[in-house]
Design brief:
2 copies of one chain form a homodimer. By secondary structure, the first copy, chain A, is mostly helical. In chain A, 66% of the residues lie in helices and 8% in strands. Chain A contains 6 helices and 2 strands; from the N terminus they run H-H-H-H-E-E-H-H. A two-stranded antiparallel ribbon of chain A has the order 1-2. In chain A, helix 2 crosses helix 5 and helix 3 packs across helix 4. In chain A, 32% of the residues are buried. At the A-B interface, helix 1, helix 2, helix 5 and helix 6 of A face helix 1, helix 2, helix 5 and helix 6 of B. Chain A binds a DNA duplex through helix 4.
Chain lengths: 143, 143
Amino acid sequence: MPRSHTLQSAPLLAWLRMVRVVSRTQRAATDHLRQFDLTPAQFDVLAQVGATPGPSQQELADRLLVTQGNVCQLLDGLEKKKLVERRREGRSNRIFLTTDGQALASQAVPEHETWQAERMTALEEEEQRELLRLLRKLDRSQQ
Amino acid sequence: MPRSHTLQSAPLLAWLRMVRVVSRTQRAATDHLRQFDLTPAQFDVLAQVGATPGPSQQELADRLLVTQGNVCQLLDGLEKKKLVERRREGRSNRIFLTTDGQALASQAVPEHETWQAERMTALEEEEQRELLRLLRKLDRSQQ
DNA sequence: AGTTGACACTTTAGGTCTAAACTATGGCGA
DNA sequence: TCGCCATAGTTTAGACCTAAAGTGTCAACT
């Protein structure tokens, strides 16, 4: 979100930079994930289900910070690609990776996380920790 | 983008927090801007054109970090609402706010920027400046 | 003048996401 | 048992965005 040239306070400038960094990185991630034939949203599902298998769709939505409706659509796509499966249990679905999904996740997740982490290496380790501290504080202040 | 539970390095955690903060804030901004009957994307155009009137669509796209095609669509919408106008000049368009657009921008932009800045007040001023410094460094390292 | 190329904008198809309406389904009290 | 309600998931309409193809226009060269 852009600036007016009138109010150039540190908070506002920090906000603009953050949006720039995130949107640029997400665009780069889109390119990077193409090698696995995954979109960033699909990668997120794979990584999340790979890390803690068997969540309900609601849990998945909460962890990914998106709506149930969106999760439903994403899973439709991933099921069509035979990467995940829904297993009905009571009135909810539990989500698991298929064998194909596990194979892809075990390759793509570490690779992409390394790539992601490397985009931060412009900062010293001490700076990375400080950035984390500040973002954590900010995040918590917003509930 | 979510975590694997395997690799919890500071860079990765910082990245996840940043995405959280940005996506939460953007969702809140969507709500906040509804009072002006503006979407965040429309607000960005208004703020940008208000700050430096008369850009070409290409310039606007560069500053907003979006594609020309997207700018074109956004301007279609804003022109329909009589908030901006395209003035043909040579082979490009220069974009200006209409009188209505100026009236709205002069109210909405300061108000929203104040709102935005307030979301940062969980951090001390010193911390805000440090955050800005770190983000700037990160941003520059990515071109 | 006619051709070519570069550039600025527009259009289109498709993916992502949301809010809100809709459809089960399982449990609970009357 | 029946009906109700809360919960889990699905569907739909619409906004946003991109990549890529399409259109138009200016200018420079022949």
